[in-house]
Design brief:
The protein is an alpha+beta fold. The protein folds into 2 domains: 1-42; 44-325, monomeric porin ompg (Porin, Beta Barrel), CATH 2.40.160. The chain contains 3 helices and 14 strands. Strands 1-2-3-4-5-6-7-8-9-10-11-12-13-14 form a 14-stranded antiparallel barrel. The radius of gyration is 28 Å and the shape is globular. Keywords: Signal. Residues 1-22 form the signal peptide.
């Protein structure tokens, strides 16, 4: 009888202690998951570097915004910086390119000012471009030979206009002015736009540029359209024409395809002649929404080469920094 009472007492203690043991187990599991999550958030060196650079971009934008507006209270900021770089493989060997640009938005100026930084500030048009603008013998040389520009952009939304005033950060400093007027409209799944631009560079000269385009959305996964552009350089009396036909396909939330056919023409004594090209650009988000990989095979046919096919393969990484890319999934 005594043994039975002891057995009953022991069983009762075990029954009472089981919930406590389960609670301790759950707490230990929760604590382990919390530590694991903190470890993921801290991440490796490249994740911490991304966070640090993004916070720096946000701080720059807030400080410039406060300086120009005279207001210390800073609104939500969507400033960003974008890097894109990689090798370009062709029959002639391996080259490289590096592109960099930043848009620092200043909301306290009633969203009328931007601070714009670009690595290809001396590149005035894409209407004569058959490859990456900053293509060089390597990515390192492309970085070293970048012609960085810095400009303040004033936006007049009621006019559909923006005005840039800035300098090319080379020696000697090369000031420039740019003015753009944009128009466009959306009708259901159709959209059209046009843009007129005038530019004046101290050393590069003056010129005019015009763009016209349309796009049509087909369901959730497809969009097709066309773009036409022309640029006139007054200094050399050269005119460039370009027409692009494209089809965009969304494969899933992370992957997209761009198919494009382009025709380029030029009028002038020192121009590169006529050409056409076609390529497929496959892009995929490799990590969250700020690390994107691109694979782009391209065929180019230029009149200077009797329109013989010239194949190239561009492999690139695109990295986005800024407050919109912090803490995203």
């Amino acid at each position: 009888m005594i043994l039975s009472k002891e057995a009953l007492l022991l069983s009762g203690c075990l029954l009472v202690s089981l919930p406590l043991i389960a609670d301790e187990t759950d707490l230990a599991r929760d604590e382990q998951e919390k530590r694991h999550q903190e470890s993921l958030e801290k991440g490796s060196w490249w994740q911490s570097t991304h966070r640090s650079v993004s916070e720096t971009v946000d701080d720059w934008s807030r400080n410039i915004d406060a300086f120009l507006s005279g207001k210390q209270h800073v609104l939500s900021n969507e400033s960003y910086m974008r890097l894109r770089f990689g090798p370009i493989l062709s029959d002639d060997g391996a080259d490289g390119f590096f592109d960099f640009n930043a848009r620092l938005k200043l909301p306290n100026t009633k969203d009328r000012l931007r601070f714009v930084i670009e690595s290809d500030g001396d590149h005035l048009t894409s209407d004569n471009e058959v490859t990456e603008t900053s293509r060089d013998s390597s990515v390192v040389n492309s970085v070293a030979n970048s012609n960085v520009s810095a400009a303040v952009r004033y936006i007049k939304k009621s006019w559909g206009a923006d005005f840039d005033g800035g300098v090319l950060l080379a020696f000697p400093l090369n000031p420039f002015l740019r003015t753009r007027f944009s128009q466009g409209q959306r009708y259901g799944q159709w959209r059209w736009y046009q843009q007129e631009e005038a530019f004046a560079y101290y050393t590069e000269g003056t010129g005019l540029r015009y763009k016209l385009g349309y796009a049509h959305q087909l369901g959730d996964d497809f969009q097709y359209g066309s773009r036409f552009g022309t640029t006139w350089f007054a200094q050399d009396d050269e005119i460039y024409y370009r027409e692009d036909f494209f089809l965009k396909q969304s494969l899933n939330e992370k992957s997209k395809l761009l198919y494009q056919l382009s025709f380029l023409q030029a009028d002038g004594d020192d121009t590169d002649g006529n050409s056409f090209l076609y390529f497929v650009d496959y892009s995929r988000h490799l990590y969250k929404n700020w690390l994107i990989g691109h694979v782009k095979p391209q065929m180019t046919h230029e009149s200077d080469n009797d329109y013989q096919a010239d194949f190239s393969l561009t492999l690139s990484l695109e990295v986005l920094f800024g407050n919109p890319y912090l803490g995203t999934k």
